[in-house]
Design goal:
single chain, 7 strands, two-stranded antiparallel sheet, alpha/beta
């Protein structure tokens, strides 16, 4: 494994995007979907970035990069800038221990960007370690076709009932068995079909039945 995969919680945290073109706009949009506070450094802004600033989804902090702009940032992305600017940003960020990605330049990056399939809260990240970015993109397109569009709703449904299932099925092995059946059976099918109310009802029926059969649940719950 050439790179260690990790998912960062960026909600409410400052991320710096250096670049004002379409590529930088795409990076900013990804960060915005993750809940980050986006600060943009660029001499000129693409229409998408101008709109983001107008809507207060990002702030335009400076036309040109300087090291003090890294203050408070937890992540830095550089896209569409010259080699000189990219090197300056990368060196300054790495000197401060801030993760930095320079688009299409693994040498200057402390992390690489995977191809992403977003079924929030389910996120699939695909990387070839920089060896074959096109292959990562092809895999992403394949997974976009294969993974159900409502997969995130199924995950959210399971998240809503985790506490209840844990209270009613005290045994860990029993809980795992229940979730394996629920996430591959009728509750999952109904959730993926978009029938959330029926999925909830099916999950509760399955939980009642599992608790009755096992005899190990918490009846008071």
């Amino acid at each position: 494994m050439d790179h260690f995969p990790i998912f960062l919680d960026l909600k409410g945290r400052r991320c710096l995007v250096v670049g004002g073109g379409d590529a930088a706009a795409a990076k900013a949009a990804q960060l915005r979907r993750a809940g980050a506070r986006i600060a943009i450094v660029a001499a000129t802004l693409s229409p998408a970035l101008r709109e983001a600033v107008r809507c207060r989804a990002a702030i335009h902090v400076a036309p040109h990069f300087s090291a003090p702009l890294l203050e408070g940032a937890v992540l830095v992305m550089v896209a569409g800038e010259t080699l000189a600017v990219s090197e300056a940003v990368a060196l300054a960020a790495q000197a401060r221990g801030i993760p930095v990605n320079v688009m299409d330049d693994a040498r200057l990056s402390s992390f690489i960007m995977p191809a992403i399939v977003d079924r929030s809260p389910v996120t699939v990240a695909i990387s070839t370690g920089g060896a074959a970015p096109l292959l990562a993109g092809l895999l992403r397109r394949w997974l976009e076709c294969v993974l159900p569009q409502r997969l995130g709703r199924l995950a959210a449904l399971a998240g809503r009932f985790r506490g209840l299932v844990k209270r009613r099925l005290r045994d860990g092995i029993e809980r795992r068995s229940f979730w394996e059946e629920a996430l591959t059976g009728e509750p999952a099918r109904l959730a993926l079909d978009g029938n959330e109310a029926a999925a909830v009802a099916a999950l509760l029926r399955a939980l009642d039945e599992r608790q009755r059969v096992s005899g190990r649940g918490d009846e008071a719950a």
